[in-house]
Amino acid sequence: MSQQLEPTTVAIAHTKHADVSYGTTAAHRLDVYRPESTETTPTGGAPILVVVHGGAWQYGDKATPAVVDNKVAHWVPRGYVVVSVNYRLDPPDPIQQAEDVAQALAFVQTHAADWGGDGERVVLLGHSSGAHLVSLLAADRSIAADHGARPWLGTVALDSAAFDVERIMKRRHFRFYDRAFRDDEQYWRLASPLHRLGEAPDPMFIVCSSERRASCPQARAFMAKARTLGGRVTVLPVSLSHRDTNIQLGTEGPYTAAVDDFFQSLGLP
Which of 13, 133, 142, 246 has its CA 20 to 30 A from that of 189? Predict the structure, then answer.
Protein backbone atom coordinates (compact mmCIF):
# COMPACT_ATOMS: atom_id res chain seq x y z
CA MET A 1 0.00 0.00 0.00
CA SER A 2 1.17 3.52 -0.69
CA GLN A 3 2.08 5.87 2.10
CA GLN A 4 -0.73 8.24 3.04
CA LEU A 5 0.53 11.78 2.71
CA GLU A 6 -1.01 15.03 3.82
CA PRO A 7 -0.99 18.11 1.58
CA THR A 8 1.71 20.64 2.23
CA THR A 9 0.91 24.11 3.48
CA VAL A 10 1.03 26.64 0.65
CA ALA A 11 3.68 29.17 1.64
CA ILE A 12 4.59 30.72 -1.68
CA ALA A 13 4.14 34.24 -2.93
CA HIS A 14 0.75 34.28 -4.56
CA THR A 15 -2.50 36.23 -4.62
CA LYS A 16 -5.82 34.49 -3.95
CA HIS A 17 -9.17 35.78 -5.16
CA ALA A 18 -11.70 33.76 -3.14
CA ASP A 19 -15.34 32.97 -3.87
CA VAL A 20 -15.54 34.63 -7.25
CA SER A 21 -19.09 34.19 -8.59
CA TYR A 22 -19.42 32.62 -12.03
CA GLY A 23 -23.16 31.92 -11.97
CA THR A 24 -26.48 32.45 -10.26
CA THR A 25 -26.34 30.19 -7.19
CA ALA A 26 -24.22 30.13 -4.05
CA ALA A 27 -22.50 27.00 -5.37
CA HIS A 28 -21.31 28.82 -8.48
CA ARG A 29 -18.06 30.02 -6.94
CA LEU A 30 -14.40 29.65 -7.78
CA ASP A 31 -11.07 30.55 -6.21
CA VAL A 32 -8.22 32.03 -8.24
CA TYR A 33 -4.57 31.61 -7.24
CA ARG A 34 -2.08 33.63 -9.26
CA PRO A 35 1.54 34.66 -9.00
CA GLU A 36 2.00 37.97 -7.23
CA SER A 37 3.69 39.21 -10.39
CA THR A 38 2.23 37.57 -13.50
CA GLU A 39 4.40 38.30 -16.51
CA THR A 40 2.59 38.67 -19.79
CA THR A 41 3.71 36.56 -22.71
CA PRO A 42 3.41 37.00 -26.47
CA THR A 43 0.20 34.96 -26.27
CA GLY A 44 -1.26 37.43 -23.79
CA GLY A 45 -0.84 35.95 -20.34
CA ALA A 46 -0.19 32.99 -18.08
CA PRO A 47 -1.50 29.48 -18.71
CA ILE A 48 -4.47 28.52 -16.55
CA LEU A 49 -5.11 25.24 -14.73
CA VAL A 50 -8.79 24.76 -13.84
CA VAL A 51 -9.19 22.24 -11.01
CA VAL A 52 -12.45 20.37 -10.33
CA HIS A 53 -12.78 18.63 -6.95
CA GLY A 54 -14.22 15.18 -6.36
CA GLY A 55 -16.53 13.83 -3.70
CA ALA A 56 -18.84 11.16 -5.18
CA TRP A 57 -20.86 13.93 -6.89
CA GLN A 58 -22.31 14.71 -3.44
CA TYR A 59 -19.73 16.57 -1.37
CA GLY A 60 -16.34 18.28 -1.58
CA ASP A 61 -15.09 21.84 -1.81
CA LYS A 62 -12.76 23.88 -3.99
CA ALA A 63 -10.64 25.04 -1.04
CA THR A 64 -9.91 21.64 0.50
CA PRO A 65 -6.12 21.39 1.05
CA ALA A 66 -5.97 18.00 -0.67
CA VAL A 67 -7.51 19.59 -3.75
CA VAL A 68 -5.40 22.71 -4.09
CA ASP A 69 -2.35 23.01 -1.84
CA ASN A 70 0.24 20.94 -3.69
CA LYS A 71 -1.07 22.00 -7.09
CA VAL A 72 -0.83 25.69 -6.21
CA ALA A 73 2.60 25.15 -4.64
CA HIS A 74 3.89 23.51 -7.81
CA TRP A 75 2.26 25.35 -10.69
CA VAL A 76 1.88 28.93 -9.46
CA PRO A 77 5.68 29.38 -9.10
CA ARG A 78 5.97 28.08 -12.67
CA GLY A 79 3.82 30.99 -13.82
CA TYR A 80 0.39 29.34 -13.93
CA VAL A 81 -2.89 30.73 -12.71
CA VAL A 82 -4.71 27.98 -10.79
CA VAL A 83 -8.52 28.14 -10.55
CA SER A 84 -10.46 25.79 -8.26
CA VAL A 85 -14.17 25.37 -8.96
CA ASN A 86 -17.27 24.53 -6.94
CA TYR A 87 -20.51 23.30 -8.48
CA ARG A 88 -23.98 22.25 -7.34
CA LEU A 89 -24.03 19.12 -5.16
CA ASP A 90 -27.52 18.79 -3.70
CA PRO A 91 -29.22 16.92 -5.17
CA PRO A 92 -26.38 15.25 -7.07
CA ASP A 93 -26.86 15.52 -10.82
CA PRO A 94 -23.62 14.76 -12.71
CA ILE A 95 -24.85 16.08 -16.05
CA GLN A 96 -25.91 19.35 -14.43
CA GLN A 97 -22.57 19.44 -12.61
CA ALA A 98 -20.69 19.05 -15.90
CA GLU A 99 -22.73 21.97 -17.21
CA ASP A 100 -21.71 23.99 -14.13
CA VAL A 101 -18.05 23.24 -14.85
CA ALA A 102 -18.61 24.27 -18.46
CA GLN A 103 -20.09 27.55 -17.25
CA ALA A 104 -17.10 28.07 -14.96
CA LEU A 105 -14.74 27.34 -17.86
CA ALA A 106 -16.47 29.95 -20.02
CA PHE A 107 -16.20 32.47 -17.18
CA VAL A 108 -12.50 31.74 -16.72
CA GLN A 109 -11.81 32.13 -20.43
CA THR A 110 -13.68 35.45 -20.51
CA HIS A 111 -12.05 36.90 -17.39
CA ALA A 112 -8.58 35.36 -17.70
CA ALA A 113 -6.89 38.71 -18.40
CA ASP A 114 -8.23 40.07 -15.09
CA TRP A 115 -5.84 37.67 -13.34
CA GLY A 116 -2.95 37.92 -15.80
CA GLY A 117 -4.04 34.73 -17.53
CA ASP A 118 -4.52 33.64 -21.11
CA GLY A 119 -8.00 32.32 -21.88
CA GLU A 120 -6.65 30.46 -24.92
CA ARG A 121 -4.24 28.39 -22.80
CA VAL A 122 -6.47 26.52 -20.38
CA VAL A 123 -6.18 22.95 -19.11
CA LEU A 124 -8.96 21.16 -17.19
CA LEU A 125 -8.01 18.84 -14.32
CA GLY A 126 -10.37 16.85 -12.13
CA HIS A 127 -10.09 14.16 -9.46
CA SER A 128 -12.50 11.29 -8.81
CA SER A 129 -16.03 12.50 -9.60
CA GLY A 130 -14.41 15.74 -10.76
CA ALA A 131 -12.39 13.63 -13.20
CA HIS A 132 -15.65 12.18 -14.48
CA LEU A 133 -17.02 15.69 -15.04
CA VAL A 134 -14.01 16.97 -16.99
CA SER A 135 -13.93 13.73 -19.00
CA LEU A 136 -17.59 14.21 -19.89
CA LEU A 137 -16.76 17.69 -21.22
CA ALA A 138 -13.79 16.33 -23.14
CA ALA A 139 -15.84 13.49 -24.62
CA ASP A 140 -18.63 15.76 -25.86
CA ARG A 141 -17.42 19.29 -26.49
CA SER A 142 -20.96 20.46 -27.26
CA ILE A 143 -21.68 20.54 -23.52
CA ALA A 144 -19.05 23.22 -22.98
CA ALA A 145 -19.89 25.05 -26.20
CA ASP A 146 -23.57 25.25 -25.23
CA HIS A 147 -22.49 27.18 -22.11
CA GLY A 148 -20.27 29.62 -23.95
CA ALA A 149 -16.91 27.91 -23.46
CA ARG A 150 -14.30 27.90 -26.17
CA PRO A 151 -11.98 24.96 -26.89
CA TRP A 152 -9.32 24.33 -24.26
CA LEU A 153 -5.89 22.76 -24.70
CA GLY A 154 -6.29 19.45 -22.90
CA THR A 155 -7.77 17.52 -20.00
CA VAL A 156 -6.24 15.65 -17.05
CA ALA A 157 -8.46 13.07 -15.31
CA LEU A 158 -7.19 11.76 -11.96
CA ASP A 159 -8.54 8.33 -11.09
CA SER A 160 -12.09 8.28 -12.39
CA ALA A 161 -13.67 4.84 -12.39
CA ALA A 162 -16.80 6.17 -14.12
CA PHE A 163 -16.03 6.37 -17.83
CA ASP A 164 -18.79 3.82 -18.52
CA VAL A 165 -21.62 4.59 -16.10
CA GLU A 166 -24.01 2.23 -17.87
CA ARG A 167 -21.68 -0.71 -17.25
CA ILE A 168 -21.28 0.26 -13.59
CA MET A 169 -25.01 0.54 -12.95
CA LYS A 170 -25.80 -2.83 -14.54
CA ARG A 171 -23.38 -4.59 -12.20
CA ARG A 172 -22.87 -4.67 -8.46
CA HIS A 173 -21.84 -1.15 -7.39
CA PHE A 174 -21.50 1.21 -4.46
CA ARG A 175 -24.75 2.75 -3.23
CA PHE A 176 -23.63 6.32 -3.84
CA TYR A 177 -23.83 5.64 -7.58
CA ASP A 178 -27.59 5.11 -7.23
CA ARG A 179 -28.10 8.56 -5.73
CA ALA A 180 -25.98 10.20 -8.41
CA PHE A 181 -27.13 8.31 -11.51
CA ARG A 182 -30.70 7.23 -10.65
CA ASP A 183 -32.61 4.27 -12.02
CA ASP A 184 -32.58 5.58 -15.58
CA GLU A 185 -30.70 3.80 -18.37
CA GLN A 186 -30.93 6.78 -20.72
CA TYR A 187 -29.35 8.99 -18.06
CA TRP A 188 -26.57 6.43 -17.54
CA ARG A 189 -25.57 6.66 -21.19
CA LEU A 190 -25.80 10.45 -21.27
CA ALA A 191 -23.59 10.60 -18.17
CA SER A 192 -20.99 8.17 -19.58
CA PRO A 193 -17.91 9.77 -21.17
CA LEU A 194 -17.38 6.52 -23.09
CA HIS A 195 -20.82 6.70 -24.70
CA ARG A 196 -20.72 10.47 -25.28
CA LEU A 197 -17.43 10.10 -27.15
CA GLY A 198 -18.24 10.46 -30.83
CA GLU A 199 -15.17 12.20 -32.22
CA ALA A 200 -11.52 12.56 -31.30
CA PRO A 201 -11.22 14.49 -28.04
CA ASP A 202 -8.55 17.10 -27.50
CA PRO A 203 -5.46 15.64 -25.80
CA MET A 204 -6.17 13.82 -22.54
CA PHE A 205 -3.95 12.46 -19.79
CA ILE A 206 -5.71 9.89 -17.61
CA VAL A 207 -4.22 8.75 -14.30
CA CYS A 208 -5.53 5.55 -12.75
CA SER A 209 -4.74 3.93 -9.42
CA SER A 210 -3.44 0.40 -9.88
CA GLU A 211 -4.67 -0.23 -6.32
CA ARG A 212 -8.31 0.00 -7.48
CA ARG A 213 -9.87 -2.81 -9.47
CA ALA A 214 -12.14 -0.73 -11.71
CA SER A 215 -10.10 2.39 -12.40
CA CYS A 216 -7.49 1.32 -14.95
CA PRO A 217 -9.76 -0.97 -17.03
CA GLN A 218 -12.28 1.86 -17.46
CA ALA A 219 -9.52 4.31 -18.35
CA ARG A 220 -8.04 1.95 -20.93
CA ALA A 221 -11.42 1.28 -22.53
CA PHE A 222 -11.97 5.02 -22.96
CA MET A 223 -8.45 5.45 -24.35
CA ALA A 224 -8.97 2.62 -26.85
CA LYS A 225 -12.17 4.17 -28.22
CA ALA A 226 -10.63 7.65 -28.35
CA ARG A 227 -7.63 6.35 -30.28
CA THR A 228 -9.86 4.65 -32.87
CA LEU A 229 -11.31 8.13 -33.46
CA GLY A 230 -7.83 9.66 -33.84
CA GLY A 231 -7.57 11.11 -30.33
CA ARG A 232 -4.35 11.53 -28.36
CA VAL A 233 -5.12 9.92 -25.00
CA THR A 234 -2.55 8.55 -22.55
CA VAL A 235 -3.27 6.39 -19.50
CA LEU A 236 -0.77 6.41 -16.63
CA PRO A 237 -1.27 3.69 -13.98
CA VAL A 238 0.25 4.71 -10.64
CA SER A 239 0.79 2.69 -7.47
CA LEU A 240 -1.03 5.22 -5.31
CA SER A 241 -4.30 5.15 -3.40
CA HIS A 242 -7.29 6.97 -4.84
CA ARG A 243 -6.74 9.73 -2.27
CA ASP A 244 -3.04 10.06 -3.03
CA THR A 245 -3.55 10.45 -6.78
CA ASN A 246 -5.00 13.81 -5.77
CA ILE A 247 -2.78 14.85 -2.87
CA GLN A 248 0.55 13.84 -4.38
CA LEU A 249 0.06 15.69 -7.64
CA GLY A 250 2.33 18.70 -7.33
CA THR A 251 4.87 16.99 -5.08
CA GLU A 252 8.30 16.29 -6.49
CA GLY A 253 8.70 12.98 -8.29
CA PRO A 254 7.92 11.04 -11.45
CA TYR A 255 4.13 11.36 -11.09
CA THR A 256 4.10 15.16 -11.20
CA ALA A 257 6.86 15.10 -13.82
CA ALA A 258 4.65 12.98 -16.10
CA VAL A 259 1.84 15.54 -15.85
CA ASP A 260 4.34 18.33 -16.50
CA ASP A 261 5.47 16.47 -19.62
CA PHE A 262 1.86 16.35 -20.81
CA PHE A 263 1.53 20.10 -20.25
CA GLN A 264 4.73 20.69 -22.21
CA SER A 265 3.34 18.59 -25.06
CA LEU A 266 0.52 21.15 -25.20
CA GLY A 267 3.05 23.97 -25.55
CA LEU A 268 2.90 25.04 -21.89
CA PRO A 269 5.83 25.65 -19.53
Answer: 246
